[in-house]
Amino acid sequence: MADRWTPRPSSDPAPPSASSSERDRLRAAYDADRVERLVSQDLDDLAPEPKPRRKTSVGRWIVRGLGVGIVLLIIAIAWLAITAPLSKSLLPPTPPSITLTADDGTPIARRGAIIGAPVDAATLPPHVVQAFLAIEDRRFYSHWGIDPRGIARAAWANMGSGGVRQGGSTITQQLAKNAFLDSDRTAARKIREAMIALWLEAWLSKDEILSRYLSNVYFGDNCYGLTAASKHYFGRKPKDLSIGQAAMLAGLVKAPSRLAPTSNLDGARRREAVVVGAMVSAGFLTPREGDMVKPQRVLSSAPAQLPNGTYFADWVLPEARDQAGEVKTETTVQTTLDRRLQRAAERVVARAGLRQAQVALVAMRPDGRVVAMVGGKNYAKSPFNRATQARRQPGSTFKLFVYLAAMRAGMTPDSTIEDTPVTIGDWKPKNSDGRYQGTITLRQAFARSSNVAAARLTQQVGVKAVIKAARDLGISTPIANEATIGLGTSTVSLLELTAAYAAISRAQYPVQPRGLADVREKGWYQSLTGGATKMPNSVHDEMLDLLSASIHGTGRGAGITVDAYGKTGTTSNNKDALFVGFAKDLVVGVWVGNDDNSSNPGLSGGGIPARIWRDFMQSALGIAPVVAPEPVVEAVDPDALPEGEDGNFALPEGEIDGMGLNLKMGPDGTITVGPSRDREERPPIEREDRRALEREDRRLPEDEGPGEEN
């Protein structure tokens, strides 16, 4: 401060003239000034000086990083050399073949692959190679196994479409996946795929990679490799393929099973046009050359599946593949099929006299193991499985769920119901035979399959209760929320319907039909939510009572010599006829009808289906056929008959007249039959008298004749 006096340091001697009091004053002023100067100093001046930093060596970290990278590279190379040997990519993939066996281990069906000879991309016509490059990997000759531009393009397209529409895999990556990896879509698999692609690029030339890819890729119809596909679809070698043929084959790679031209020629041709457009866009073809390419034709024959193909094998194969996982080697899967029962089913169906009608039969154990299946009269002519794939109306076999709902509601077979005409809204159900019995028990109504009783019962217990009963027993197809469902108006497969009856047999629901011997363990969530439910004993006994009564009612044609339970079903206009039932440890469903859903006059569930069911059960269970009952003879009092000389009873000698006949017994035991004397003595009615009687009958008033029940 300029205008302030600054005292001298305390070390300076005081002036000689200053007194002691003056010295004390000066010292105090000096101390105050010192304090003021300390307070006014900048805070940075008061802070301690920082310690000098240690200089870190950046080069040391670079050396460490290179060392770790080299170690990881050595580990990766060793891992690839072991898990992805280059020699493996030279070979075509092992045929993904599955052999299905019966429950006794005997092979019943086999699914294999057609493997073509390896090709050399360098010797193929340019347009053949260019077709694959244009649609699969245009920058194949410029990238190192992974195409960042392709990945970015695919990611952008997939983001815009909201799903996986395009893939960014190069041909090298596809070879890596086909030859060394499975088909899952996890991130770990994609990383391994990329590493193997870089490995292949480092050790193989581009032509070698392309050759191995074309030799291994799948083209549909169980054909692997360009050689097999060229021969199968066009009957020629790869070097003879035209531009259009090469484009069609290149287009199949995206979705070979769906686009196989033997089953989807239109789809294959549309994809061919896309490939030709890609070849033009890539500069492999001129626009004029692209316009000249025409839609291709293929050979009409699909790969032969017989005798490997059967209805049961077709049904169980997807489940077998799921159980076996990704099949790359020969795999054997044991099924539940019983060869003896299968032969019995085929034999019974063959001799059923079906004419133009088709047939389906399913036989299973109460726990759902399918032991026999017939999906039609002739697999070679029609592989469509009518036991599993067809959805038809079940008719009165659906009444099982109506009566189950009634038993759950507290009714019993002895409860009564009105078997009289009824109107529910605009619906007026009628009994098929046009007869009505009035008040009857539920047992009687079920035995005679009364439609009006089932309609009334559905109305009483509620449609929702009937639907719940069907759902509980395993019916998964849509069921209309209306009273008509009680008569079987909703569609269902024979397999599901048979499994529902199996649930009654087992007293536990639902029963899941299965065709494999080994059952996969369910996860904890499925165990908690999808477990089986035991049927109450009272309800089970009541349902057996009803099903047994039906065998003695409309199902008389299915009668066998052991306790049996079942139900008939016939749809409107006799379009479908069914019989489903069980005996001992076998549950069997039979359907008969036309594929075009046309009428079969005279067809009913108690006719051909019941007889097929009966004949199959007799053969399967090893039981004798039902013996026709002997004629009933009225008891005769032996004391009323005279005894002959030999001790036997004899008819009296003479004449016996009655019932319009005259029997005359001679002394030698001969019997002469003639017209009754009463008839002979009755005067004949003259023609004029007969006409008079007819005129008299016509004059009777109408209200005096026999009435008709309304």
Task: Jot down its keywords.
17 strands, alpha+beta, disordered C terminus, 11% strand, disordered N terminus, 3-stranded mixed beta sheet, extended, Beta-lactamase, Penicillin binding protein transpeptidase fold, 710 residues
Count of alpha and pi helical runs:
26
Helix content: 40-55%
User: Could you tell me how far the N terminus lies from the C terminus, measured between alpha carbons in angstroms?
Assistant: 131 Å
| Name of the CATH class of the domain at 346-518 and 530-621 | Alpha Beta
Average pLDDT taken over every residue = 78
CATH topology-level fold name of the domain at 346-518 and 530-621 = Beta-lactamase
Global morphology: extended
Strand arrangement within the widest β-sheet reads 7-6-14-13-12
Region (Disordered): 1-26, 660-710
Pfam families: Transgly, Transpeptidase
Family: In the N-terminal section; belongs to the glycosyltransferase 51 family. In the C-terminal section; belongs to the transpeptidase family.
Biased composition (Basic and acidic residues): 676-702
